[in-house]
Known about the structure:
By secondary structure, the chain is mostly beta strands. The protein has a domain at about 65-200: Oxidoreductase, molybdopterin-binding domain (Sulfite Oxidase, Chain A, domain 2), CATH 3.90.420. About 10% of the residues lie in helices and about 35% in strands. The chain contains four helices and 13 strands. Strands 3, 6, 7, 10, 11 and 12 form a six-stranded mixed beta sheet that branches. Strands 5-4-13-8-9 form a five-stranded mixed beta sheet. Strand 4 and strand 5 (about 60-65) form a beta hairpin. It is globular.
Amino acid sequence: xxxxxxxxxxxxxxxxxxxxxxxxxxxxxxxxxxxxxxxxxxxxxxxxxxxxxxxxxxxxxxxxxxxxxxxxxxxxxxxxxxxxxxxxxxxxxxxxxxxxxxxxxxxxxxxxxxxxxxxxxxxxxxxxxxxxxxxxxxxxxxxxxxxxxxxxxxxxxxxxxxxxxxxxxxxxxxxxxxxxxxxxxxxxxxxxxxxxxxxxxx
Length: 202
């Protein structure tokens, strides 16, 4: 399994991709607050599906068992919520987006990805960022199954972006040529969501 960890360089503590471990405007908490717009879906692993469509050569749909046959990796990383709290050093386990991409053929003009979730939530990211920023489909946190209120059985985790850029209860990826704002992006949140630049709103 691939494992990424934060590091300390001199007197400045950096995370594994070289940014200051503590983004500006954030406070540390050991709690894991639940922030969800709308109802909390209840999806069993037997019913869960992940569909990949749009600018791909062939539509692919994974069942839970099929998805767990993909490489399983661990990522020790930090979680930054736009509402100014952060959790540090949790161990996330699941499937890296970069590994998932090895199972499909995206068309050359695919540049963006819209994440879709049970309940209708959406959020968008450039394909390049999803490939290069350790974006993970998470089913286990600190050795325990991801809790329903936090997006279980499967959510997307985006360690280099504010957490709303990873959909809870994810059930689909739409590959697109042009960018299109997701739910919170349509409601005034930043389209790039870089915690180190405090990109919270447009």
